[in-house]
Amino acid sequence: GQCSAHCPVGAIYERDDTKKLLDAILDPELHVAVQIAPAVRVAIGEAFGLEPGTITTGKIYAALRRIGVDAIFDTNFSADLTIMEEGTEFVDRLTKGGVLPLITSCCPSWVDYMEKYCADMIPNFSTAKSPMMMQGALTKTYYADKKEIPKEKIFSAAIMPCTSKKFEIVRHKDMYASGQQDVDVVLTTRELARLIKQSGIDFLSLPDEGADSPIGAYTGAGTIFGATGGVMEAALRTGYFLVTGSEYEKITFEEVRGMDGIRTASIHIDGKELRVAIAHGVANVRDLLNEIRQARDEGKEPPYHFVEVMACRGGCIAGGGQPYNTTDEVRNARIAGMYADDQQSEIRCSHKNPFIEEIYKEFLETPGSGKAHELLHTHYQHRPLYTK
Ligand code: SF4
């Protein structure tokens, strides 16, 4: 993406998918549903002169409605769902002696790296799909059923901070869990900003609107997915509940926040030590993996139980689809926006999202059920590089 500004002959240009969304909106046969990722809401305002980190969730929903989208959902809802599925997988491995550490898999750049360069660690990977892919699968099943709309008449779009997400939607046959392509198109934050401007919408004077039900409501845990350490913190908030069935008194885990490339923490819960690690930026990821691999090859106990990985420095708030000129100052401001959104949320733990409780009751049964696996989990494969 950023190459377009630097390529001397203009041969590299940014792929623009805005027309695909507009064509779908103009097609009277199609019902267009859009989801927005956590990190979009703290960055898109920069395209309209706002400070980095300003939360504009309500205005994004309003802008999409003005553009003509039929249903507005939030990827933060399925971030909550990811915590339920991944958390259950983690507790299962921890209590039944499965492969540890469990490593997060919601970043498609990291999945691609792992499938090419460290396929020996596939067993460590969480099988939970990314929130975007979970949301897509549910849009064309759960939501389609509820609204009685045939799934082939639903066009599902996602606004993401990330260019890799454009590849993720066709990564594996599991991305067609509904029987259709679960997410039809990905637009980056920059593409949405452009679309809003081209549509003549005055973003700053839009009212704050809400998302649509039932897969639009989210908790503070869902929103912090956009910052490095956020998935870990969200998982810690719910992990205790998944193990014991009761609530833990602690909500915030400052020890997993911050910008150091690799962060580790020991968390003591009910006399048990839980060792966690977070890496962001591919070079840091490689170092952390080598440490884990070495322990494994020497037959030692894994150095960590749970590991969060993001390819971008700072996490998705600084993804390749975000507004340009991302410095560390901008990263920190966007991260502060994410935690402010969490802080002001009435509900801050994924398992307490009433719509999450409802979707299990009505549709998915329990976390990790057969149905959940069919729609919300995936497989990985070694993709050897072509070498002569
Ligand atoms: Fe995309 Fe970067 Fe987030 Fe990975 S960390 S999902 S590459 S924005």
Summarize the structure.
This protein is α/β, with parallel strands linked by helices and 388 residues long. Helices cover 39% and strands 12% of the residues.
Beta-strand residue fraction: 5-15%
Helix percent reads 25-40%
What is Rg?
20 Å
The domain count comes to 1
The helix count comes to 13
Principal-axes geometry comes out as globular
Query: What's the CATH topology label?
Result: Rossmann fold
Q: Strand count, sense and closure of the main sheet?
A: 4 strands, parallel
Architecture per CATH nomenclature, i.e. the level-2 architecture: 3-Layer(aba) Sandwich
Q: According to CATH, what is the class?
A: Alpha Beta
The H/E string reads HEHEHEHHEHEHHHEEHEHHH
Helical/strand content category:
alpha/beta
Overall pLDDT: 93
Chemical compounds bound to the protein: iron/sulfur cluster
**Total count of strands:** 8
Strand order of the largest sheet: 2-1-4-5
Q: First CA to last CA: what distance?
A: 29 Å
Unreliable stretches (pLDDT < 50, length at least 5) are none
